Amino acid sequence: MSRVLAAAGAEFRIALRNRWVTIAVAMMALFAAVLSAAGSAPTGQLGADKLSVTVASLTSLAVYLVPLIALLMSFDAIAGEVERGTLPLILTYPVARWQLLAGKFLAHLGILALSVVVGYGIAAAAAFWFDPRAGAGLAALFRLTWTSLLLGAAFLGIGYAISAFARRPGAAAGLVIGLWLVLIVLYDLGLLAAVVADAGGTFTRAVFPWLLLANPADAFRLYNLAASEATAVAAGIGGAAGAIPPARALASLVLWAVAAFAFGVAAFRRVTP
Amino acid sequence: MLRISRVTRQFGSVAALSDVSFDVAAGERVALLGHNGAGKSTLMKIVLGLIPATSGSVSVAGHAPGSRAARDLTAYLPENVAFHPALTGREQLRFYLRMKGEPPKAAEGLLERVGLGHAIDRRIGTYSKGMRQRVGLAQALIGRPRLMILDEPTSGLDPVSRREFYAILDELAKGGAAILLSSHALTEVEARTDRIAILSRGILVANDTIAALRRGAGLPIQLQVAARPETADEVAERLAGVRVNGRRVDVTCEPDDKLDRLGKIAGLGHLVDDVEVVPPSLEDIYSHFSRLADRREGRA
Ligand SMILES: Nc1ncnc2c1ncn2[C@@H]1O[C@H](COP(=O)(O)OP(=O)(O)OP(=O)(O)O)[C@@H](O)[C@H]1O
Ligand SMILES: [Mg+2]
């Protein structure tokens, strides 16, 4: 454990010096602030408190931003060490590869937690400013925070696997951006197109829910929107997926977080320095 | 401490190592020599368990290379050692100490030992090449290693630091560490190691003490005779030597002829001012064994 913590400490320091901490926190804070400003106008009384509404829009924001930040932090984790030539030396130390990766993971997750807490904190503060009843949305905000970390964990693991697979930071960067586009943007568009073309057929009823669950970003959105009272406000793809039980979405998210890290370790094990 | 037996490593069609066997005992300093691409770094990586051998076996105090037990005992200094430029020397050393399970407090002492006390809190990105090499040395000294694998440890070091480095090495060897180091700086290796192993195109062509290699090579010895003024030509003629300049005459002879020739030189009496015996240098021995291997390969 002390080796994991040592690796985490070094990684966090490096991220701090490389301004990664600043960039991640600033990115989340900026988007949350913009989102609060845009949502500060009265949205027509829907009955929901301001914070619940904010959480719903934060969810849509997190689906894009959290995976992006996670991938941007993780793509360099192994490829960068290979490129700098620091990998052979550390691999002769009495430390397991999973311990090294766990250290990086802890540091990256910590940075993500920091940026998420700052970003959501800003949005929550704005909600409380405009609506004294905002306390009702605190549970949803809490849920959004820890599921964001699960989502981030899943994409960190995926990023490590890509980093180990690509061996070169440039190639790894290209791959993670491509993956982000596919999983976060194109995936939903594709599903939507398929659902429309299918017009309520067997695909929509039998296959579509599973495809939603299979994507960690969709599982994240499903869980938060289904559990939130403001589902209707930010429907998006949620309407068609109303039938999926939230527990399944959560299970998918947890599974992804665990499996992605295991996948990252497995890919790292195959790297010969 | 380290036993390498019949190690072969193939990179596609390139045979980086062919059937290499030798041992390094505790307290012994062995220099691994060889031309660029001879297979020195490859052999070290196999010993460390970083890459597998195609065939053959390595044992580190009875453990498999790369096993946890072997890694606990071993220190490594890679060629072209690199660190994260954003960390300071102290932070980097504390990291390595914790990875070896040692108290991180030792960082300061280690960095001072390699002469980096003044730059301890500067980022490694601002270090010179030699300073980075010293950080590499400092991390190799962590936790009294029993086996040290040093790949061109003195490259980039200034002459004074080289001397200091070999002094540290002597200390470690006295403490019972087995040391395997590669180098291209033959003169310093000659003076500071116990045994020489020479690789040529992946084949171990020599593995012995310098004295034994010198004897085995049977290379001619050079006698440099300083003649008195105006006598150089006469000296050269009577000794069948070569006049190098106005005063000096060089005579080459077989090792067995040495005393006989010296007697003849002494017999010249007042014609000769001084005589210097120059045994074949490590460079000569090195090229002898490398050429020998080339010829053997040419015949095969
Ligand atoms: N990863 C690799 N893939 C393919 N060939 C390799 C690899 N590593 C080493 N080789 C080849 O193996 C041979 C030995 O290389 P090695 O690095 O061991 O040489 P060296 O003795 O350390 O040389 P130098 O003095 O230049 O450091 C070379 O022909 C090299 O091209
Ligand atoms: Mg080398």
Write a structural description:
The complex is a heterodimer of chains A (273) and B (300). Chain A is an all-alpha fold and 273 residues long. Chain A has one domain. In chain A, 79% of the residues lie in helices and 0% in strands. Mean pLDDT of chain A is 86; it is low at 230-238. With 300 residues, chain B is α/β, with parallel strands linked by helices. Chain B folds into two domains: 2-214, P-loop containing nucleotide triphosphate hydrolases (Rossmann fold, 3-Layer(aba) Sandwich); 220-278, Lrp/AsnC effector binding domain/regulation of amino acid metabolism (RAM) domain (Alpha-Beta Plaits). In chain B, 37% of the residues lie in helices and 27% in strands. Chain B has eleven helices and 13 strands. Chain B has helices spanning 40-48, 68-73, 89-99, 107-113, 129-140, 159-174, 186-192, 210-217, 232-239, 258-267, 282-299; strands at residues 2-11, 14-24, 29-34, 55-60, 74-77, 147-151, 178-182, 195-200, 203-208, 221-227, 242-243, 248-253, 272-278. In chain B, strand 11 (242-243) and strand 12 (248-253) form a beta hairpin. Chain B is globular and about 70 Å long. The mean pLDDT of chain B is 90. Classes of the chains: A mainly alpha (273), B alpha/beta (300). The structure holds adenosine-5'-triphosphate and magnesium ion (MG). The site of magnesium ion has 4 residues of chain B, from helix 1.
**How many separate domains of chain A?**
1
What ranges of chain A have pLDDT less than 50 throughout 5 or more consecutive residues?
230-238
The geometry of chain A reads as globular
CATH architecture of the largest domain in chain B: 3-Layer(aba) Sandwich
Report the span from N to C terminus of chain A.
Answer: 24 Å
Give the rounded overall mean pLDDT of chain B: 90
Shape of chain B: globular
Distance between the termini of chain B: 34 Å
Q: What's the mean pLDDT score of chain A?
A: 86
The major β-sheet of chain B equals:
6 strands, mixed
Widest sheet, order of strands of chain B: 5-6-7-3-8-9
Radius of gyration computed on alpha carbons of chain A: 20 Å
